[in-house]
Each structure stands twice: as structure tokens, then as C-alpha cells.
Amino acid sequence: MIFTGRVRTTCAYCGVGCGIVAEVNKDQSVSISGDQEHPANFGRLCTKGTTLGETFDLTNRLLVPKVEGAPSDWDSALSTVAARFARTVAEHGPDSVAFYVSGQLLTEDYYVANKLMKGFIGSSNIDTNSRLCMASSVAGHKRAFGEDVVPGVYEDLELADLIILVGSNLAWCHPILHQRILAAREAREIKLVVIDPRETVTSQGADLHLDLNPGSDVALFNGLLRDVLLSGADDGGFLAEHVSGLSAARRTAADFDIATVAAQTGLPRDKVATFYEWFIQNPRTVTVYSQGVNQSSAGSDKVNSIINCHLATGRIGQPGTGPFSVTGQPNAMGGREVGGLANMLAAHIDFDDRLGHQAVADFWNAPRLSAKPGLKAVDMFDAIEEGRIKALWIMATNPAVSLPEADRVRRAIERCPFTVVSDIVKRTDSSRSANVLLPALGWGEKDGTVTNSERCISRQRAFREPPGQARADWWIISEVAARMGFAEAFSYQSASEVFAEYAALTSVASERPRCLDLTAFAGIDAHGYDALLPQRWPQRAVADIRESHRLFGNGGFSTADGRAKMIATPLRLPASQSSYNYPYIVNSGRIRDQWHTMTRTAEAAQLSAHYGEPFVEMHPMTAAEIGVEAGELVVVENNSGEVILRALVTDRQRPGRLFVPMHWSDEFASAGRVNKLFAANVDPVSGQPELKFSPVSARRFAAKWFGFAVTVAGWNPATTYWARMKTANGCRLELADTESIDEASALFEALLPASASVEIVSYLDTASDSYRFAAMDNGALVAALFVAPRPVVVSRTFVADALGSEVAAAAVLAGRAAGERVDDGALICSCHGIGSKTIQRAIIDGADDLAAVGACTRAGTNCGSCRPEIQQLINAVSVAEAS
Ligand code: SF4
Predict the structure, then answer these.
(1) What is the pLDDT of residue 121?
(2) Which of 420, 610, 785, 824 has its CB 3.0 to 4.6 Å from that of 593, i.e. a possible disulfide?
(3) Percent of the chain predicted with pLDDT > 70
(4) Looking at ligand 1, which atom is closest to the CA of residue 330?
(5) For residue 671, how far is its CA from the centre of ligand 1 (angstroms)?
(6) Is the CB of residue 393 below 6 angstroms from any atom belonging to ligand 1?
(7) Which residues, in sequence order, are CB contacts of 813 under 8 Å at separation 6+?
């Protein structure tokens, strides 16, 4: 059935969880707009959400099941998986198998996977890529509140007088929350403090940027707690009634006077003092934290040192207050809720909760409910490498890119005797050696629920027919379960049946109270599920009229005694610090327009224009030390591996520190998988690996030549360095090699489509080893190649846009349109394709605010994700003019 019309759904990307209206047109193209009624975004969308309609190309989709590389039917593929898992369990025990799942799964998929592994296989070896993202927040919440609960709601960001962002480049990673903050700050004074070792577009808009030493956050917050307690800014009543653990936390914090904090963090004393003063003066304070806090070998302590300050001041669960963890993935929260982490049982019930354990066993009628935690992500892949795990099922994730020591992880997957990968794409770095590939449904095709960072459950709704033989993950898992002999417990006919069962599970008895309560949905039918509006939990069967949508404002924590617990957090510096003797520290993170390992965002040509290849950002002094110039290539390495990245030289990094984006896999670049540089050092409580700190060395990549190419044809370059991105009509490539190019024309021929009518024009300057080629087919550009001994300087936007269009061959060889400057600078506005130089010219010509720049250039007038960068350009020009 071909569907046309409007569907309300939820974004596929970050944990903000924006509501989307997808309009399916008659030609089956999809127009995307923000859902005006969704409480997360009220109609706003960032570049990634806006371009979701461009990501339905089926070229790279996995459309049929495959067994040992050969197309298969579902029955054979499912039977193969079931038989092998059953046999492995029978021969080696339940802990010889594992599932590695993902925050991309919907709650219903997660629930079924968790039920099969823990309830019926009898192992807890199910862990998720949320371990890499949020596990330290989970551990911190559980230690402090007794349960993994985010107490506040997004509205608190608009009601606060002070917002503290810790380890969060919110402008790029959670753009719509950042836009909500910017809008609130335009309406009234809200102070913004950013705590981040590096300068980002987020920190550039802050009132105070604390660029502390990497990993020293605990010292800063211990010092804050000490100052709060000494100055009498604590809430004695809240502490007395609702909190325990004050004495131990106070004793630890006592060591952190301002001189010690300044020494440990590397911050000037006056900046630290200003921060403490603002915190003390502003009862309405929200502290938002993200991966910069979590991805650390001391991540749990960082989280608890932040929560300690909020508990001490009673700033929790009241309007405009609270510690606020924001999640990276669309459904990290849903996975945590159902129990998709190896150290949780189900529905916020722990393994040591004997009453709850029995209740879950009874509810599921589970014959062998696992009684102990399983292996967390890093330990799981160690066990695979060591041969202890003999059958692995990876669902909707790419651990060979995203885990630390990524090369070792890839080797472990290759060695695993039996690997299943269910995914939407044909090939990932993790699926190359899989025995069985199972085609899953993607966004727009699958049906279910997700939970965002403020506990809001929203529907993802299907509005496209399943492509090929792709099926829902919950269906795939249930079919395998049935073939393993558990048909009765996995007889679901729809996602709504799964959701209703999960909601009912939240009602079972447990020793400790739980806020997670979805019993209002326990009897939901298909119609009710279809109509489900975004709603924050708890959703009780019998509503408690005293309960607000904020939690813990009047105590009532999920601990045995109902009190929150302050945790003593001695400072532990990064575990990776002492291991090696390398001159630089590398930090990893996201960029604005890409998502995870780019399997979906790389389908949107518009998103690929922001950064076209993996890069390493460094200070000019560091570049000079390495001997590399902007635009050249750099080898970054340590004893875990090496990568080759483009040098981005800015003063945003401190000397000696490097920043690398985490998105590039071997599918998109020859050597951009940066997580191979990070050792598998984990937080001892949460098991979350340290992905923000690794010692490395760096050296110039001695390229003999550089190249830039576009082609309408597919091409797999054999050069030492390459990076490929999609364009509207083909792809663009960056190339380089340390070997001299034998014959540039031969390289160009490899780019050509098979067509008899292709005409080639060229400009060859053998004296300078510079070559330019363009191939035209009936007046349209079908390929171009630029080769030079230095990084190629052409307008990449012009050449990429010209591909597939009628254009003058001379303009292609010139590398720019007639009258166009060579380069419009870095792309700032993805929606309208506006570069930094156009914006700078408008500012110099008098456009002195965002509205004026938008009126002159259109930059920033659509989704608004680039407005912080435009503001940064406005500020830079103002400073230059004033000096
Ligand atoms: Fe999607 Fe952007 Fe909203 Fe995140 S902020 S949910 S990526 S639209």
C-alpha cells in the first residue's frame, strides 16, 4: 500500500527527541517539518532532523537476509541463528553468547532482546552502545537517587537564572536545547557557564568559559561543594529531611580550597571564584552534563560531584533547578528503562532486589531468569577476543568504530565463531565478517516508542513501506526466540503488544520504590498506541495528584530510606594519563551535521558539505611543532593505532591538545576511525570507557601529491589517504599519497562512468606537477580530478554542485564559477549552502546581528543550527574592527 499524507513522529538522532511531522508526497518524497505541539521542540528542528527526508536512498540498504554471504530467505536465516545460539548455549552455557544492542533500537525492540537474553537464554550478556554514552550518568543517578532518574524537564532551562553546561557542546550535539536556551536568554538575563577543556561554538556564547584541565571536573565541583557549605548557602532543611552522606562528602570536599582547585584545574582563581559566587547567588540553577562528563575513567564520580552540589542546596525537582544529564542517542533512555544494560535486570529492578527478581521471573514466566549482571561492553569484547563468547548478535550499532581500541574490537569480531548483525545498511565496519546479516527496518519504516532526555515517551511512526525484506527488530528477535523453543513468551503480533506488556511489567513488586511507572499504558490497545501523545513518565494507572512532572522536589527518592545519598568523590585523574609518554592529548566528539558512524547522515548530501573529511583540530603552536600547515594531513598515533586526518588549525584548542571527530568509519575514509587511539580504560563503577582523553603523538603525513575529485560513478580509491562523501549527484573525494603519482590520467580514468560519449578536457602543468581533468557527457559534468603537490585549492562547493549538471568545462578546470572567489570558506549554513566568507562580507558591509546577516545572505534563516557560528563571525569582525 502506498501511503501519502502527514504523520507525527520523532527524530531519529539525538536525545533531545524532537517531534517531527513527516509529509509523504505523491511521488513518495518526504517533506520534514518540526512538530509545533511536541514539548521537546515546539516546531524547531536542527539540520540533521530537517534533512531526514533525504536519507531514504536504498543504494546502501541491506534488503535481504544473508547467510555466509549468500542471499537467504527469512525462515532459513532465522533458523540458522536460533540453532547456532541454542547449540552454543547447550555446549558452553548461557554466558557463552551475547547481544550487543543500541540506543537506536526502539523501546519495544530493546524490551524483547532483554527478555530473551535475561529471561530465557539465562545470561545477562546483553549490553548496549549506551554504555559508551551514558553509563556514568546511570551509575551516578543510582548511587544518588537509588534509581536511574533524570529529575527535571526541558522547561527548567528556560526557568533557570544560571545554566551550567559541563562537558557539553550543546550547540552542535543537542542543537534544539541550545536554541531554547538562546531564546530564553534573549527574553531575560540567564547566566551561562560552560565548563569544557576546549573552546566550542557553545562556549563562545557563554558568560564564563572554564577551560579546565581534562578530567579535573571533580576538583572544581568538590571545591564548589566546600564553598557552598562554608558560605552557608546549603539548604539545611532539605539536607536534614531528604539527604544522607553529607559528612563523608564534606570531608572529601574540605581538601579542595580555591588554591587547590586552581592548581588541579589549571583555571585562574578569579574565574573559579566567579563561578562559585554565581552558583551561590542563583537558587535557580540547572547543571547540564553530557559526554564530556560521562566518557571518563572517573565519569561516575564526576556525575556525583555535580549532583552533590544540587542536593546540598536543595536545587532539585523545583522549577528552574536540577542536575540534568542529556543523552546522546534517540532512545538511550528507553533502553535504560527496560533493562538493556548488562548490570540491570528489567524495568529499573536490580539483580540484588530479591522480591523484584522473583516478580520479573513470575511475570515473564521465565524458566531461567539470570540472577547476576553480565559483561559490560568493553569486557564483552574482551571475552569475545579471548574465546569465552562464541556467538554474538550485534543489533543496530557499529562497535568496530565506536568502541575504544577499535582495531582490537574488529579483530575480536572477526575471530568470533558466529556473528549475527541486524542493521539497515549492507556493510559496516562491524558486519564485514558476519556469518548472518539480517535486514532491519529504519526510521520512517518502523513503529514504536522512544524516551528522550526529559523522560518523555514519544511514538516513532511508520510512514513508508518496508523496503525489500526488511523487518522490525522486535519481530526478528521474537522469531529467533520462537525457534529456540520460547514461542509462547514471544508471540507478539505488533509493537503495541510489546509496549503494553512492558508497561505492565513496571507494576510488579520490588524491594525499593521506583519512579518508573507506566501502568497507565498497561492495557493499551492498538488504537490507543497509534494515538499515543508524547508523555513523561511516571504514568501511573491511578494518577497521584500530588506528583508534578518534576521528581524529588520534596524528597521521595528511590532508596530504601527515601533519602538521596551524597557520595564522597576524591579526585582521580584520567586513567590513560600515566600509561604512556606521548606529547599530545587527544579528545574526541561530534560535529554539527553528522551522526554517529554516518550510516544515515551520510545519505544527506547537504549534511556532508559541513565537513567533508575527518580532521584534527589543533592550535597554531602545535601545528608549528608538528611541522604541518593548515590543510595538510597529519598522522595521529599511539600504541593502539594510527589515523590520518586533515589539519584544522585554529586558536580554539589549547597548545598540546587535539580534537578529532568520532564519525568516520572505514566506509568513508581510509584512516579516520579515531576510537582506535583510545585505550579501553573504563570507569570502575559504570564501565564506561574514557573517550575524551588519550595521549598521542602526531607527525606530518609526507604527501607527494593531493587530489580532489568528483564522480557520478562509484569508485574505491587505492590511495593511502582518501575520504568520500555523497553529493547530490554522485560523490566527492579527497585524496593523497606518499608515493608519487605515476600517471594522473590513469587515475582519472578510474573515475569515469561507462559511457561512450564522454569527452575529456584537461589542463596539465608538468612543471609544477599540477593536473586538472573534467569529463563531460552531453554537456554535463560526470567527473573531475584536481591533482597538485600542495592541498588542492578549488571551490569544492562549486565543483560538487556542478556534478551531473550542464556547465562550462573551462569553469570546472578553473575550479570555480566565473566571478566566484576561489573558496567561500568553511560551510556555515548547510540549509542554504552559505560559506563563512559570504557571511563575513555581509558583516563587513554592515550586517551586525543575526537578523541582518540572515536578511543579506539567508544564512541561519531555516533550522538555525548555524546561528552560534554566525554569531561567532559577527563577534570576530566586531573585535577586529574595534582593535
Ligand atoms: Fe533531531 Fe536535531 Fe532535535 Fe536532536 S536536536 S532530536 S538531532 S532535530
Answers:
(1) 98
(2) 610
(3) 97
(4) 6
(5) 28
(6) no
(7) 761, 762, 763, 772, 774
Give me ligand 1 centre to Cα 180, in Å: 12
Closest CA to 474 of 458, 460, 495, 449: 495
Taking the C-alpha atoms of residue 485 and residue 18, their distance in angstroms, rounded to an integer, is 40
What's the 598 CA to ligand 1 centre distance in angstroms? 15
Tell whether ligand 1 has an atom less than 6 A from the beta carbon of residue 176.
yes
Inter-CA distances, 299 with 135, 539, 662, Å: 9, 30, 19
User: How far apart are the CA of 49 and the centre of ligand 1, in A?
Assistant: 5
Which residues are within 8 A (CB) of 859 and not within 5 positions of it... i.e. 6 or more apart? 828, 829, 832, 834, 838, 839, 853, 866, 870
In this predicted structure, what is the pLDDT of residue 367?
85
Ligand 1 atom at minimum distance from 34 CA: 8
- Helix, strand, coil % in the chain, rounded to nearest 5: 35, 20, 45
Cβ of residue 18 lying under 6 Å from some atom of ligand 1: yes
Burial class (CB in 10 A: 0-12, 13-18, 19+), 739: exposed
Q: In the chain, which residues have pLDDT < 70?
A: 1-2, 545-547, 578-580, 818-825, 878-883
Q: What is the pLDDT of residue 842?
A: 82
Provide the strand spans (E) within 524-682: 535-536, 564-565, 584-589, 615-618, 633-638, 641-649, 657-661
Determine if ligand 1 sits within 6 Å of the CB of residue 16: yes
CA 451 to chain centre: 15
Cell reading at 604: 544527506
> Is the distance from CB of 298 to CB of 574 less than 8 angstroms?
yes
Q: What is the pLDDT of residue 879?
A: 57
Taking only the tens place, the pLDDT of each residue in 527-571 is 999 999 999 999 998 877 666 789 999 999 999 999 999 999 999
Question: Is residue 607 packed enough to be buried (19+ CB in 10 Å), middle (13-18) or exposed (0-12)?
Answer: buried
Test site for ligand 1: of 9, 10, 14, most ligand atoms within 8 A of the Cβ: 14
pTM (2 d.p.):
0.92
Per-residue pLDDT at 604: 76
CA-based nearest residue to 411, from 393, 423, 399, 424: 399
CA distance 807 to 780: 6
Contact 739, 704 (CB under 8 A): yes
CA 10 remoteness from chain centre: 16
Å from CA of 34 to ligand 1 middle: 10
Give the N- to C-terminal CA distance of the chain in Å, as an integer.
Answer: 65
Going from the Cα of 15 to the center of ligand 1, the distance in angstroms, rounded, reads: 7
User: Which among 176, 594, 607 is the best mutation to test ligand 1's pocket, defined by most ligand atoms within 8 Å of the CB?
Assistant: 176
Q: Is 177 in the pocket of ligand 1 (CB under 6 A)?
A: no
Using the atom order of ligand 1, give the atom closest to the CA of residue 595. Answer: 7
Kindly report the backbone phi and psi dihedral angles of residue 139, in degrees, each rounded to the nearest multiple of 5, phi listed first: -65, -40
How far apart are alpha carbons 634 and 867 in whole angstroms? 30
Q: Rounded to whole angstroms, what are the CA distances from 400 to 35, 101, 377, 469, 480?
A: 35, 13, 12, 26, 25
Minimum-distance ligand 1 atom for the alpha carbon of 177: 5
The helix/strand/coil state of 526 is: helix
